[in-house]
Amino acid sequence: MPDRPSRPRRPSGGRPSGSPDGDDAITFDARRGGRRDGDDTARAIPIGRRERPARPAPTGGERSPGQRPPAAQTPPARRRAAAGARPNPRDEPRTRVMPTGTPPARPSGGGPRGGGPQRPTGGHGAGGGPHDRGAPSRPRRRRPGRRFVSVLLVLVVAWALGMFWAVSASWAEVGTVDASPDGDRPASEGRNVLLVGSDSRAGLTPEEREELGTGSDTGGARTDSILVLHTGSGPSTLLSIPRDSYVEIPGHGMNKINASFSIGGAELLTETIEHNTGLEMDGYMEIGFGGFAGVVDAVGGVEICVENAMDDEKAHINLEPGCQVLDGKTALGYVRARYSDPQGDLGRAQRQREFLGALSDKMISPANLLLPWRVHSLGTSTAGALTVGEDDSMISTAMALWAFRGISSGDGNSMVVPTSGTSVPTPVGSVVVWDETRSEQLFADLRADEPLSVTPDDG
Fold first, then answer.
1. Of 21, 23, 63, 71, which sits most exposed with the smallest number of CB within 10 A?
2. Is residue 396, in this structure, part of any structural domain at all?
3. Rounded CA gap, 162 and 153, in Å?
């Protein structure tokens, strides 16, 4: 084989022409192509650069072109170990051990090649990406306050929807009637609602009439109670009008006021009251015998304090003095009885106002208003027995019930029209006559929505 041209020698430790700079240098012998010197040292590859794999030595002791000497292929640690020398710690690979879960720190000046600022490593909270699995994830902070608010909001929305369903379903069962008279009507301040308790037996079976003691159907409806609720800028006033009041019925002359209801129903009764009081009726509510008893039973009875013993066969009651809970049947007899009351019709009017206030207070109690199913049960029982004017709304009716409740609690006036006689004989029978001076003064105060100059005791 022809001899290989020898290369010019260079000083020990030098680099061949065109070799990489310090960081990119690879390990090589001090002499190439000449005699191998076992004492020559090799230069270590800096950290971060990939070491070129050593090529196997050719057989027969010959080196192929470009073959590095064996000294360059053997790491210094192995050569020292083979020679029996103590290992040099500096010959070991420089491996940096990092704590588990701690990301390696990068130079603040940039990347490996001195580039621009690098993105910080770490979890998602420190700007790391989804591949930074070495960084520990910070535990999410629990916020019990936010969860409580969310649950509370859901409950409030569910309660509101339930209440809307209960009220809407109940109001759909309420009957309506035309109670607005035609023609000119008086003008007055505030709002006046006419409340009528009729003796209608409509919807009652013969057995129910016997149980409630209402008697047989007389072929027409009459009013057992007539009340006017006035609300305005001052305290509310609940005014009873005795059903035997002797007044002028428009187009029908002088008669008992309840005769107007028998003749022309709600419309003529409203017109008669407006004609004799000068108060414009803005709302109308009517409830019959059976409906009244059903409402009382629906609320679980009403507690009433009876002042005197009441034994009335016509009203089908026998009550002892003292506070007691009345069911529907007993309550109906309590508000209808007049023969067992020393004050007759005036005493009955007073008991009606008292019971109506207590009933309204029980109906609007928190126990009934806060539970949608209770509102639905009570509302359907009341709505089936209640009739309102065609122009009345659900809100105005609810406001009237709230005013009744306030009056029963002492926040308002409860009185009867001042009278001058309770058993005055007339062609239509024994009647109640109003006191002209005091009654007119009372009506004037209500028309102007001013404080009453006639006290309830005067009535």
1. 21
2. yes
3. 14
CATH number at residue 216: 3.40.630.190
DSSP 8-state secondary structure symbol assigned to residue 22: G
Structure tokens at 436: 């002209």
The answer to whether 422 and 345 have CB atoms below 8 angstroms apart is yes
Run of H or E including 446? helix 436-447
Q: What is the rounded CA–CA span in Å between residue 51 and residue 45?
A: 7
In a domain, 342, yes or no: yes
Q: Which runs of E-coded beta strand occur in 266-319?
A: 283-287, 302-306, 310-312, 317-319
420-453 confidence digits (pLDDT tens): 988 899 999 999 999 999 999 999 999 999 999 9
Q: How many domains does the chain divide into?
A: 1
Contacts of 68 (CB under 8 A, 6+ apart): 28, 29, 54, 55
Closest by Cα among 171, 446, 455, 435 to 281: 446
Give the tens place of pLDDT for each residue, 5-35. 555 555 444 444 444 444 444 444 444 444 4
What residues contact 250, with CB distance under 8 A and at least 6 apart?
268, 271, 272, 275
What confidence tens digit (pLDDT) does each residue in 185-198 have?
Answer: 998 999 999 999 87
21, 76, 77, 95, 419 from 90: Cα distances, Å: 22, 10, 9, 11, 123
Is 138 among the domain residues? Answer: no
> Comparing 402 with 408, which gets the higher pLDDT?
402
The torsion defined by the Cα of 32, 38, 39 and 41, in degrees rounded to 10, comes to 50
Whose tokens are 């006033």? That residue is 237
Question: End-to-end alpha-carbon separation of the chain, Å?
Answer: 147
| pTM of model > 0.70 | no
Judged by DSSP in three states, 193 sits in: strand
Let me know how long the chain is: 459
Q: How many beta carbons lie within 10 A of that of residue 316, not counting itself?
A: 17
Query: Are 356 and 406 a contacting pair, CB within 8 Å?
Result: no
- The verdict on residue 301 lying in a domain is no
The H or E element spanning position 425 is strand 419-426
Taking the CA atoms of residue 350, residue 351, residue 353 and residue 358 in that order, the dihedral angle to the nearest 10 degrees is 150
Q: Residue 80 contacts by C-beta under 8 Å, 6 or more apart in sequence? A: 86, 87, 88, 91
| Full domain range(s) for residue 381 | 167-296+336-458
What is the per-residue DSSP string for 38-83? TT---PPPPTTSPPPPPPPPPGGG---TTPPPHHHHS-HHHHHHHH
Both tokens of residue 307?
């002042």
